[in-house]
Design brief:
The termini are far apart. About 5% of the residues lie in helices and about 45% in strands. A hairpin with a 2-residue loop joins strand 7 and strand 8.
């Protein structure tokens, strides 16, 4: 029998204390014997309607950049940024209530652990109501780091100016920033494939973009294309065919981004295309033009199609002048997509009929027997398309045979199916 050695209580406590201290030596416990709390506030930036200024009636964002220059980590729920007003504009008499408009309602907490040497941004919003009559001018704010309510590190003071929007008024001069990096479009696309495109333009005007004052839109034009590409193919695929409106449905404030989106489909003609992106106001261009090159690879019109054709509900016997609903299902059993420009269609013709029947039988081949499959959509490999129409029994009794064939770009593919039926005259 093995005897267990009894440890003393003081020894266990010492072991636990030693383990606690050295497994997490830099946890934020404010100042302690193992680490030191220090901070270095580097800059305060005002983002919004007017850079560096808070505009009455407009939303602004205050960003404070702070660096953990101590040896303790900053932990969420322990370390905060405290903002206070230390002076108001000269000659004004702002009340304490008005002064509070410049600072957050409570200390700003960190949203993630910040280790020694790392930076952490503290952000809060200011939106001063027009009706609160806040005095304009420069307010001096003090920014202090606190740990469990106790200040630490250097105190940083900066001035933030409050301005009235009327001081910035004047004729609206539209301006924008739109560069190559603002247009998220693939450099290479496959013919017939869809790709989401996003464009972001920055409002650097001296005014907001508001409806109905401005009707901001984005015009996309194809400047060059490979030989063999028609204008219709360009408009239908690479460009949206209309001017895009911003995703934002209200206003786009100064220095904010206007976002535009559409789906680009690879043109059925392979080669290099150049697209131009231009902002417009009521149709009039403004701001810089941005051009992007897009390469389309593959050509679905050169891809041999394959298909399965199933005829449903065609009766073996028809009655003269009676209508019959017909359903045909066609499957793209090949490896290429059928796109609208490929003009994939099913064509029907009468290959057998009784002697003496007229040459034209529109009751059996309505619309000249042409049934489009991919003229308004894309049919992926493996997908089925159902065609529904009505046939009417011809007036001459006897045996008839119909043949359906898959056509692409106006040429038969040799993929056919035939069905026969008999027409009878009711007694």
């Amino acid at each position: 029998m093995k005897l267990l050695q009894k440890k003393s209580i003081p020894g266990l406590f010492a072991f636990w204390f030693f383990t606690l201290q050295f497994t997490n030596p830099v946890a934020a416990q404010c100042d302690n014997s193992m680490c030191t709390m220090k901070s270095d506030i580097r800059a305060v930036r005002v983002m919004g309607y007017s850079p560096g200024k808070v505009t009455i009636g407009k939303k602004s964002q205050i960003v404070i950049e702070a660096k953990n220059s101590g040896t303790c980590s900053w932990i969420t729920g322990t370390v905060f940024m405290r903002v206070t007003v230390v002076s108001i504009p000269s000659g004004s008499s702002a009340t304490s209530y008005q002064r509070d408009e410049m600072v957050p309602n409570e200390d700003i907490k960190i949203n993630s652990k910040t280790d020694p040497g790392d930076d952490h941004p503290f952000i809060y919003d200011i939106e001063i109501d027009d009706n609160k009559k806040i005095p304009t001018g420069k307010y001096s704010l003090k920014f202090t780091m606190v740990c469990k309510g106790k200040p630490f590190g250097e105190v940083y003071t900066d001035e933030i100016e409050v301005v009235d929007p009327s001081e910035l008024s004047g004729p609206c001069k539209l301006a924008a920033e739109l560069g190559a990096t603002d247009v998220k479009i693939p450099a290479k696309v496959m013919a017939g494939k869809k790709y989401p495109v996003t464009i972001s333009a920055k409002n650097v005007s001296n005014c907001d973009w508001e409806a109905p004052k401005q009707k901001i839109a984005l015009k996309i034009t194809c400047l060059s294309w490979p030989a063999g590409a028609s204008n219709n193919e360009i408009v239908s695929f690479l460009t949206p065919g209309r001017q895009l409106l911003p995703e934002q449905t209200t206003e786009i404030r100064r220095l904010e981004m206007a976002d535009f989106e559409y789906d680009l489909t690879g043109s059925p003609v392979a080669g290099n295309y150049v697209l131009e992106f231009q902002l417009t106001d009521n149709g009039k261009p403004f701001g810089p033009r941005c051009q992007k090159r897009v390469e389309v690879t593959g050509d679905p019109r050169k891809c041999d199609p394959d298909a399965s054709i199933n005829i449903f509900s065609l009766p073996s016997q028809m009655t003269y002048n009676k209508e019959y609903p017909i359903s045909i299902k066609v499957q793209n059993s090949g490896v290429c997509e059928w796109v609208n420009a490929s003009r994939v269609e099913l064509r029907c013709k009468v290959v057998k009929k009784p002697t003496g029947s007229p040459s034209q039988l529109p009751e059996l081949v309505p619309d000249y027997g042409i049934y489009p499959i991919a003229n308004s959509s894309t049919v992926a490999p493996g997908k089925w398309v159902e065609l529904r129409f009505k046939l009417k029994g011809p007036y001459m009794p006897g045996t008839y045979e119909l043949e359906w064939e898959l056509f692409k770009e106006g040429s038969g593919t040799g993929i056919k199916v035939k069905e026969s039926f008999t027409v009878v005259i009711p007694k």
